[in-house]
Write a structure and sequence with these properties.
The chain is mainly β. It has one helix and eleven strands, in the order αβββββββββββ. An eleven-stranded mixed beta barrel has the order 1-2-3-4-5-6-7-8-9-10-11.
Length: about 220
C-alpha cells in the first residue's frame, strides 16, 4: 500500500496529459438456473476530448450466486482499441471476479469487487501481429447510499496493479461518483463520473469520464 501511494505521488509529480471521455453502455442480464445467471454488455468509449471513438468492447460473463450478496463470475471480453497509428488493434481479455456486498445499515452498504484478468492480442493459439500479453489484478470498492426505493448514489475507488512485469506496478486508478435509477422492474440506468489516472512508463494520463449504462433484465435475478 505504501509503495502504491509512493508511485501515485511520483506519477503526479510528472507532467501529465488530460483528456475528456464519454462511455455509453448497453447491458442485458438473465437468470439461467436458481443460482446461475449471465450478463452481456457492449460499451463504446469516445475519447481524444470527445472527438473520436477510441475503443469499444463486448463483455460476456457467467455468474454463480453463492448467496444474495456474494457471486463469482468468469468473463470473456472482445476489445478492439485504436492504436497510435489510428487503426484498431483487437485485444482479448479473460477474467474472473469475486463480488461481495456488505449491508452497513438500512440504506448504506459497501460493495467490493476483485478481478484477476489476462489481456492478450491473440485468441487462444492465434498469435497475430505483434503479440501482446499482460496480467492484472483490479479491486473496486463502492460506498452505496439508497435514497428512495428505486435509486441510489455511490462513491468509490478502483485500483489496477500489473502482475506480469518484473516489479509490481500501479497501472491505473479510478475515482467514481454516480447514481443508479431503477426505471421499471426490468430496466435501469446508471449515470457516473470517473477520474481515471493512468501510470505507465509510456503513458501518464488523466481522463475525465462521463458514463451512462442502460441495463435490461430478462428475468428476476437472485441479487435483486
Amino acid at each position: 500500500m505504501i509503495g502504491c501511494i509512493a508511485m501515485h505521488s511520483a506519477a503526479h509529480a510528472q507532467a501529465r496529459d488530460k483528456d475528456a471521455v464519454a462511455w455509453v453502455s448497453l447491458a442485458i442480464k438473465q437468470k439461467i438456473f436458481n443460482r446461475l445467471s449471465y450478463r452481456a454488455m457492449i460499451r463504446f468509449r469516445d475519447g481524444n476530448n470527445l472527438s473520436t471513438i477510441q475503443s469499444w468492447y463486448t463483455d460476456v460473463g457467467v455468474y454463480y450466486h453463492f448467496r444474495k450478496t456474494i457471486s463469482l463470475s468468469a468473463n470473456y471480453v472482445y476489445a478492439p482499441a485504436r492504436n497510435r497509428d489510428g487503426y484498431f488493434t483487437t485485444y482479448h481479455q479473460y477474467y474472473i471476479s469475486l463480488n461481495n456486498k456488505v449491508p452497513l445499515s438500512r440504506r448504506l452498504s459497501l460493495s467490493n469487487r476483485i478481478i484477476f484478468q489476462h489481456t492478450s492480442s491473440f485468441f487462444l493459439f492465434d498469435q497475430g501481429y505483434k503479440p501482446y500479453a499482460r496480467t492484472d489484478v483490479r479491486e473496486k470498492v463502492l460506498l452505496n447510499l439508497k435514497l428512495l426505493k428505486r435509486n441510489k448514489i455511490y462513491i468509490g475507488d478502483e485500483v489496477m496493479t500489473t502482475l506480469s512485469e518484473p516489479e509490481l506496478s500501479l497501472r491505473r486508478n479510478r475515482l467514481y461518483v454516480g447514481m443508479s435509477q431503477q426505471i421499471s422492474s426490468r430496466f435501469s440506468a446508471d449515470l457516473f463520473f470517473v477520474l481515471q489516472s493512468t501510470y505507465h512508463r509510456k503513458v501518464n494520463l488523466d481522463q475525465f469520464i462521463c458514463g451512462l449504462t442502460f441495463t435490461y433484465k430478462f428475468r428476476k435475478m437472485l441479487d435483486d
